[in-house]
Write a structure and sequence with these properties.
This protein is of the alpha+beta class. The protein folds into three domains: 84 residues, Beta Barrel (conserved putative lor/sdh protein from methanococcus maripaludis s2 fold); 91 residues, Elongation Factor Tu (Ef-tu), domain 3 (Beta Barrel), CATH 2.40.30.170; 131 residues, OB fold (Dihydrolipoamide Acetyltransferase, E2P). It is built from four helices and 19 strands. It has a six-stranded antiparallel barrel. Strands 6-5-3-8 form a four-stranded antiparallel beta sheet. Strand 14 and strand 15 form a beta hairpin. Helix 3 packs antiparallel against helix 4. The two termini are 60 Å apart.
C-alpha cells in the first residue's frame, strides 16, 4: 500500500513539474509582430461616388456646301491633320473648293462697289458742308454705302463656308477619311473637336448626404487606367430636389485635366472631401480590434505589448483619426496583433 502511494505521489510530482515547464516555455514564447512609429499626418473624410467624364467643350464641324475636299496640314508637325492632334482656335482644318460657288459670290465686284459708295459718301459729306447738296442726297449716299458694306460682309460669310476652321482649342477626336479633291456633300462631317482640359461629371448622390455636400467642396478623381494620378475637381452645382424613385439628388463636378490624362467618356471614381484634419494621429482601420472595453490596438514597449483603448474621430475607407489613447512616436503593432494580449512578449520582424 505504501509503495502504491509512493508511486502515485511521484507521478503527480513529475506531472506537476512538466506542467510548470510547459507554462514557463509558453511564457518565454515571443510572438512575431511588425511595428510602425506613429507620425502626425492628415486625414480626409469623403463620400464616394462614380460617374462618366464629359468634355467642357465639344463641336462637330460639317460641310456647309457641296465642294471638293482638301485636308490641310498641321503646322506643328508638317503632316496632314490626324486623330489625336491638338488644335488651336482659328487653325484651318480643310478647304472646300468650288469655283462656280466662289464666282457666284462676286466678292471682288462687291468690294469694288463698297469702295465706290464710300468715296461717293465722302464727296457728298464735303458738298453738304458747303451747301452743294441736300440732306436727302447725303442720307441716300450713306444708305448706299451701308448696303454695299452689308453685301461685302455677307460675301465674306459665304466665302468662309469654303474654309473649315477650328472654333475652339482642343483635340481632334473624329476625322472621317476623304480622298483629297473628292467631292463632299453639304452636311458631311469634316471633324469633331473636344476641349477636355476641363471636364465635368453629372453624379447621383444619396439623399442622406444632401445637408453634407456643398458647392465648392474638393473632389479627388481617379480612373483605373490612371491609378497613380489623382485629379482635382470641385462640386459646382447641386440640385435641391430628390428623385423619388432613386432617393438621390443630382450634382455636377468640374474636373481640372491640364495633362489630358482623363479622356472623354471615361468612368471615374470621385471622392468628395467633406472634412479634413491636419497634424493628427492616423492609423489603419484594419488593425483596430473591437473588444468589450472598446476599440483596441497594441503598442510595443521594451519587448512586450501594451493594450490601448482608443477613441476615433474622422474616418474613411482605410484610415481613422485617433483622438484619444495614442500619441506621436509610439510604436504601433501593425501585424501579428490578432492573438495578442496585454503584456505579451513579442519579437519585431520588421
Amino acid at each position: 500500500m505504501k509503495k502504491t502511494i509512493f508511486i502515485v505521489a511521484t507521478a503527480l510530482l513529475i506531472l506537476s513539474a512538466c506542467r510548470n515547464q510547459d507554462q514557463n516555455l509558453k511564457a518565454d514564447i515571443e510572438i512575431p509582430v511588425s511595428v510602425e512609429s506613429l507620425k502626425l499626418k492628415s486625414i480626409e473624410e469623403f463620400i464616394n461616388t462614380t460617374g462618366t467624364a464629359f468634355p467642357k467643350g465639344e463641336i462637330l464641324l460639317k460641310s456647309k456646301i457641296t465642294a471638293s475636299y482638301y485636308l490641310e496640314k498641321n503646322p506643328e508637325t508638317g503632316r496632314l491633320w490626324q486623330l489625336g492632334n491638338r488644335i488651336k482656335a482659328g487653325s484651318l482644318i480643310a478647304r472646300l473648293e468650288d469655283k462656280e460657288y466662289v464666282n457666284s459670290i462676286k466678292m471682288e465686284t462687291n468690294q469694288l462697289n463698297m469702295e465706290l459708295t464710300e468715296s461717293e459718301l465722302k464727296k457728298e459729306e464735303s458738298l453738304y458742308e458747303k451747301g452743294g447738296v441736300t440732306l436727302k442726297e447725303l442720307k441716300t449716299a450713306g444708305i448706299n454705302y451701308e448696303n454695299a458694306k452689308t453685301t461685302v460682309e455677307s460675301s465674306k460669310l459665304q466665302l468662309e463656308k469654303t474654309r473649315v476652321v477650328a472654333p475652339i482649342d482642343g483635340v481632334i477626336v473624329d476625322l472621317p477619311y476623304y480622298t483629297q479633291s473628292t467631292q463632299v456633300e453639304t452636311g458631311s462631317t469634316i471633324a469633331k473637336i473636344m476641349d477636355y482640359q476641363t471636364m465635368y461629371m453629372d453624379v447621383q448622390l444619396p439623399e442622406k448626404y444632401i445637408s453634407i455636400i456643398k458647392p465648392g467642396q474638393l473632389v479627388k478623381l481617379t480612373n483605373y487606367t490612371i491609378a497613380e494620378d489623382t485629379l482635382i475637381g470641385n462640386i459646382t452645382q447641386l440640385s435641391p430636389a430628390i428623385n423619388p424613385d432613386t432617393r438621390t439628388f443630382k450634382g455636377n463636378i468640374t474636373v481640372n485635366n491640364p495633362k489630358l490624362l482623363l479622356r472623354p467618356g471615361m468612368f471615374v471614381k470621385a471622392d468628395i472631401i467633406t472634412s479634413r484634419r491636419d497634424s493628427v494621429v492616423v492609423i489603419p482601420k484594419t488593425i483596430i480590434l473591437s473588444r468589450q472595453r472598446g476599440k483596441t490596438v497594441f503598442v510595443y514597449d521594451r519587448g512586450v505589448v501594451a493594450e490601448r483603448i482608443i477613441e476615433t474621430g474622422l474616418e474613411n475607407t482605410t484610415e481613422a483619426e485617433v483622438t484619444k489613447g495614442l500619441a506621436k512616436d509610439e510604436r504601433l503593432i501593425t501585424s501579428g496583433f490578432e492573438t495578442l494580449s496585454n503584456k505579451a512578449k513579442v519579437k519585431i520582424i520588421k
